[in-house]
Design brief:
Length: 395
């Protein structure tokens, strides 16, 4: 029957994904998140997680969630704008505003929801958006849904961006950028971007998913790292990476946050996240602020890895963050290298297009404060065994 062709077309698409080396498969984890996990029945040393500070299983964070679940239950039953907004949510928003040094903050259920919501709330078809070429998919999708004309500027290229902004005739302009780029680990030139916003009367939307908790004094993020403050900045931080829990928030001046609350469909039409998660985030923020040793240890691990993989063939990108990508090139090579490490009991994900540009498939090594120095040295030794890097140097 002719109608059966739709099934054949679907099967053909899946075969093509496999032929290109882009088929993704899930591991089933049988343990809590950590430096060592059990997946599919085997224990691995894991360099896969964005739990950069090792807080996902901290006893104080877990206990805050348990105690709040006993008191408040596990579901909110409505959106924040109906009856889903609790006193714990309200208190957390105030603490997130203070933590990010912003006038006001608004909770979202995920970073993806936050980015789509804030972009579509603040920009429309009559406006113009300027987006870094290596921005995260959630920013890209938010730009598409806003229906704003977009200029995709070369990665971190301030000169190109300055010229493009100068030619733009739109009344409202917005620069959209990751703060720490999730697949390269490098940091956006935020001071230069803010200067361009001042010059061209534009907003600056900063997605600090991979900077909050890691960068800046007390882990306050990329803005604190550069000492930046401006009413033009719209700030998005996630709570499921270095903070170790789940969710996200948008922060900025009162009118910006109020506009997002009133217009963002991903906020208006989503059930509020459980109060127990908000309580867990509160506990985690205290640890982020007060335990600087976690960030210091991370910096030491980055130095250790770079030293152990010194030499022209290491192919680590120039990142000083916990994201340490090792560029391989072809999809098949990255998958094979990840498989060889897995055989040695080490998990490092192979990242392929469309997550990264064609020809830049890589292993994305994610370091965590829960790793020990000997864990990193074991990874470096395994990489040398499979042909990556130069001879080990003493570190």
């Amino acid at each position: 029957m002719s109608g059966d062709l739709i099934f054949q077309r679907l099967a053909n698409r899946l075969r093509e994904i496999g032929r290109l080396g882009l088929l993704r498969r899930r591991l089933t984890r049988n343990s809590p998140q950590g430096a060592r996990i059990v997946a599919d029945g085997r224990e691995y040393l894991a360099f896969c997680s964005n739990d950069y500070l090792g807080l996902a299983n901290h006893p104080r964070v877990v206990e805050a969630a348990i105690e709040t679940a006993r008191r408040c239950g596990v579901g909110e039953g409505a959106s924040h704008l109906i009856t889903g907004h609790s006193t714990v949510h309200e208190r957390l928003e105030e603490k997130l505003a203070e933590f990010s040094r912003m006038p006001r903050a608004l909770l979202f259920t995920s970073g993806y929801h936050a980015n789509i919501g804030v972009i579509t709330a603040l920009a429309g078809p009559e406006d113009a958006i300027f987006s870094d070429a290596l921005n995260h998919a959630s920013l890209i999708d938010g730009v598409r849904l806003s229906r704003s004309p977009v200029v995709r500027y070369p990665h971190r290229d301030l000169e190109f961006l300055d010229e493009a902004l100068g030619r733009c005739k739109a009344d409202t302009k917005m620069i959209v950028t990751d703060a720490v780029f999730s697949m390269d680990g490098d940091i956006a030139p935020l001071p230069g971007l803010l200067a361009l916003c001042e010059r061209h009367d534009a907003w600056l939307l900063v997605d600090d998913a991979h900077g909050i908790g890691v960068l800046g004094a007390q882990g306050r993020g990329s803005l604190a790292h550069f000492g930046l403050s401006s009413p033009r900045i719209v700030y998005m931080g996630t709570l499921g990476k270095a903070i170790g829990v789940a969710g996200a928030f948008v922060a900025g001046i009162d009118d910006v946050v109020e506009t997002v609350m009133q217009r963002a469909r991903t906020y208006i039409y989503t059930t509020a996240s459980p109060t127990l998660l908000a309580a867990a985030v509160e506990a985690s923020l205290d640890l982020v602020r007060n335990e600087s040793w976690r960030r210091e240890h991370l910096a030491h691990l980055v130095h250790t890895l770079k030293g152990a993989l010194g030499g022209a063939h290491a192919r680590l990108t120039p990142s000083e963050t916990p994201i340490q990508p090792l560029v391989v090139g072809e999809n098949s090579g990255a998958v094979a290298l990840g498989g060889a490490l897995r055989e040695r009991g080490i998990l490092v994900p192979a990242i392929r297009p469309p997550t990264v540009p064609e020809g830049t498939a890589r292993l994305r090594i994610s370091l965590s404060a829960s790793h020990r120095e000997e864990d990193v040295l074991r990874l470096a030794a395994a990489l040398r065994e499979v042909g990556v890097g130069a001879a080990a140097e003493r570190v």
